Amino acid sequence: MRAIVVERYGVLPTVQEVAEPEVAAGGVVLKVESTGLCRSDWHGWQGHDSDIVLPHVPGHEVAGTIAAVGDGVQGWAVGDRVTTPFICACGECEQCLEGNHQVCPNQLQPGFNYWGSFAEYVALPFAAVNLVRLPEGMSFDTAAGLGCRFATSFRAVHQVGKVQAGEDVVVFGCGGVGLSAVMIAAALGARVVAVDTNPGALELARKYGAAEIVQAGPDAVEEIRALTGGGPRVTMDALGSNEIVQQALRVLRPRGRHLQVGLLPDGVRLDVSRVIGQELQWLGSHGMAAHTYPEMLGMVASGVLRPADLVTRVIGLDDVPAALDELSAGTPAGVTVIRPSGVLG
């Protein structure tokens, strides 16, 4: 099969012919119809993830059709249209039995722990607890973005942050995660302020429900305070930046909630005295379990959420190296989806 192969960190990967994955007991092999290009893939390519062993095939946001079914898998058949969270939980540990698949200590992540979905086929483990059947009418391109960016934002905003109607929510970083968060928070009735350096991303944020947009920079904190009457109830770092974290915590009202979703590979320094004195909450959020997808899919089916609108570019495997490299200079507006088949029409 054709796949994107990273042989050295930070050096552009290439398209190569590699062996197709074998189906394992309890798992399936998926024919990849669509897979998202995410900033997490860029972090992996740069060597920020200790789980990756070179040579490596990235890719963790995936939708497709089942091509092979392993021993012991029930209820799934070749040809079924599915997606999966990027965190493939074991389904048997203490956290999984409590429903917290997104923090399973035995989790496997395609594109990180093993070869991922920037390929024509990908293996998925623990099918019984991780496969999600696609609703009729949902495209593979839309579904590919659910497993990481959209589902991650849905859990962060709705399930972890518990955003309520009427609250001011400031989203820092309007890439795929941030734009998803803007759409979800607005759909929940929050008043959203979107912050980014990219004017195109800010215009998309306004399109997806942001009431206000702010150009990122040293004056952003005072502008946000003015727009929110003294500060928001909720902030979210959707990019992963020490500078963003400082601004997000400084701008919060007392007893405000900060959602950290963006990765911080270089760590971060916190003003703990402020966190204590203002009774601020720092809330980490990591993916979303497959069994919690129905509420999100229901809101998509009703039209309240429109993840299809976030997809702004569709490319083939040959375009991936250049698209990864673009992320070194910043996050392009919208969501990029890869179709490994190369059929882009």
TrEMBL record:
Q: Does the keyword Zinc apply?
A: yes
Q: What is its EC number?
A: 1.1.1.1
> Which family is this sequence assigned to?
Belongs to the zinc-containing alcohol dehydrogenase family.
Pfam families named in the record? ADH_N (PF08240), ADH_zinc_N (PF00107)
Which top-level group of life is the source organism from?
Answer: Bacteria
Molecular functions (GO terms): alcohol dehydrogenase (NAD+) activity; zinc ion binding
Keyword Oxidoreductase carried by entry: yes
Q: Which SUPFAM superfamilies match?
A: GroES-like, NAD(P)-binding Rossmann-fold domains
User: Which segments constitute the Enoyl reductase (ER) domain?
Assistant: 10-338
Q: Which cofactor does it need?
A: Zn(2+)
Task: Give, as one word, the top-level EC class.
Answer: oxidoreductase
Name the record gives this protein: Alcohol dehydrogenase
Keyword annotations for this protein?
Metal-binding, Oxidoreductase, Zinc
Cross-referenced InterPro entries, in alphabetical order?
A: ADH-like_C, ADH-like_N, ADH_Zn_CS, ER, GroES-like_sf, NAD(P)-bd_dom_sf, Zn_alcohol_dh
